[in-house]
């Protein structure tokens, strides 16, 4: 009786919920199952307990990927936000048409697919004739093979990363800036606060929640970086990670194990390890925020 | 006195610095895209092909290169695949998410909170954990190298649902009651009342979905293994791979063609794109 009353509601939610269960919930649960099994996709899965997890945690590639990831995150996330905040403040200091113009110019790289950003920059980084080496050549710097020199590879990736993502965060921060009441600035000006003091004591604190979102979101996506290093280092399941795996990252390692090594159980376990790490970091971020607000 | 003279502030060091900085950054942001365009629209024989060309020199040479890419490589096919993938995903996401958003935001029924809660949790789950199991499921369905394999797993978009629910919550309950009193059925209320009111959100979601599917690299890479199912992203990746013997002209033509649809979308819909992203960040 009551089910019939609610039937129209269920019918309209059904397409979404069915697809959601089939292509989200079920895959996650089956992934958990595979992660405890040795499986190459053909023969019957063989139960191995935590064997896959063990193997991943001690493998050289995993340690390398984690090391790269930490270094990459430590630079790209704070620097990315710093740049985005700077861009937002810069755009905000213009008015009308010029504010619009600069916002759009800074934002343009964001609409390009990440795969395209990586492939354009491959050519900018090209040794000898690449755009960047040419510009450096004007200043007498000898040619650098940015994508093959273990000392420069990760910085080359970080530059591409900031080039494509700074505009995205800028737009979010700009929206946050619009929400700060102008009276605050007027009051500060009357009290004789300088521009810099206003930014430090009004803008940044008032942007707190927005910066927190940008930081957390940036952290989560940085932990899953894939397209850019993949395409900067070779773009195939036989060659990825670059020279001495200097651009190997966890998701690349996971994809390599699945489709290069045909170890689906191991790859599923890898996915869970990554998820645990991401959930842990996210929870930590929220705990830190709660703690800092209580103070 | 005209308004401009009274409004103009004195030119300070800060003003000069600010303009210089803004222009330099704008150049850094836009130049690689502009350079790509210039490489395509210039004579192929010009020496040192990676030179920073500041403007296009030959329009017809560019057209020839584009013609060559479309006729002599698999690029046209990849274009068709990418466009179909994007369009089918957009239509699917809009229909499926708006139906569900209508129910979740405006009605109460047993299980509503639980279902919506689980879907919102999904927003926090990284793709890394679902991609391998979803691939395994899709293969088992026999959908490897098919359009449904490309499209269907991405249709239940938690983000799309979240965004539309935010908008539909603003639909006044009285309008629904009024429509019901006029004898409108449940589906008619959805179609004639709720949908028209969130047209803007639907358009924004469509644009964001387009940019996202056009730029999706990982899923097509593993689900479309045969050349006839390659998307633009895969072809661009192959053109750029170190083992390919394409010249910079050809590669940049491929890159430019991949960049044009999202850039055009941006130039036409820039306000909606920027608002959509700002909304996902500040309301999230």
Describe the structure.
The complex is a heterodimer of chains A (295) and B (284). With 295 residues, chain A is mainly alpha-helical. Chain A is 75% helix and 1% strand. Chain A has helices at 2-35, 51-58, 60-92, 96-111, 114-124, 131-138, 153-178, 182-190, 195-206, 208-223, 227-233, 250-260, 264-294; strands spanning 37-38, 46-47. In chain A, strand 1 (37-38) and strand 2 form a beta hairpin. In chain A, helix 2 (51-58) packs across helix 13 (264-294), helix 3 (60-92) runs antiparallel to helix 10 and helix 5 runs parallel beside helix 11 (227-233). The longest helix of chain A is centred in the first third of the chain and has 34 residues, at 2-35. The radius of gyration of chain A is 24 Å and the shape is globular. Chain B has helices at 3-7, 13-40, 59-72, 75-106, 112-122, 127-140, 147-151, 158-168, 173-181, 186-197, 199-215, 218-223, 232-240, 248-282. Chain B is 73% helix and 0% strand. Chain B is mostly helical and 284 residues long. Chain B is globular and about 70 Å long. In chain B, helix 4 (75-106) crosses helix 8 (158-168) and helix 4 crosses helix 13 (232-240). Chain B has 14 helices and no strands. The interface between A and B is large, with 96 and 93 residues.
- Binned strand content of chain A: under 5%
What oligomeric state is this? Answer: heterodimer
Order the strands across the largest sheet of chain A as they lie in space.
Answer: 1-2
- Termini separation of chain B comes to 48 Å
Tertiary shape of chain A: globular
Portion of residues within helices of chain A: over 70%
Mean pLDDT of chain A comes to 92
Number of separate strands of chain A: 2
TL;DR of this structure?
The complex is a heterodimer of chains A (295) and B (284). Chain A contains 13 helices and 2 strands.
